[in-house]
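4.2 Preliminary Data

To establish feasibility before requesting continued support, the project team ran the inverse folding procedure on a target of 134 residues. The structure was first converted into the token representation described in Section 3, and no sequence information of any kind was made available to the design step. The complete token record follows.
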């Protein structure tokens, strides 16, 4: 009885679903109609896209939705990094100033090294580590 009800439900759903008579333009513009789909269905279905797509030389593939998100994220990050009023901006800019970094050497880290060297117990070292992460 259950099998009959399920079969009838599937039949009713299929009958009322209607049918697609035309593909959307976003799909048809990707099709290469010069290819026989029985010979190479992938080339038939995506061939026009392959012929028209421009893949940048520094990339091996392209995904328009993820590329767009990546470009937008990069713009947001660049704005954050270039903002000199924040610590993040200062840190980012300091990484780019290699001449100053070379001249300073390890001097900016001396206080941290002294604190680590002064730890005599495991507890002292954990306290110093906690202070350094702030």
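Position-by-position output of the design step:
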């Amino acid at each position: 009885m259950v099998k009959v009800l399920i079969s009838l439900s599937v039949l009713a759903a299929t009958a009322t679903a209607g049918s697609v008579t035309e593909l959307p333009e976003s799909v048809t513009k990707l099709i290469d109609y010069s290819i026989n789909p029985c010979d190479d269905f992938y080339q038939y279905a995506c061939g026009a896209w392959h012929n028209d797509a421009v893949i940048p030389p520094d990339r091996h593939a392209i995904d328009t939705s993820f590329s767009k998100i990546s470009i937008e994220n990069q713009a947001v990050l660049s704005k954050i990094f270039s903002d000199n009023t924040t610590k993040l901006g200062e840190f980012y800019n300091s990484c780019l100033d290699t001449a100053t970094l070379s001249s300073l050497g390890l001097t900016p880290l001396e206080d941290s090294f002294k604190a680590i060297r002064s730890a005599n117990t495991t507890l002292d070292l954990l306290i110093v580590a906690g202070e350094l992460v702030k």
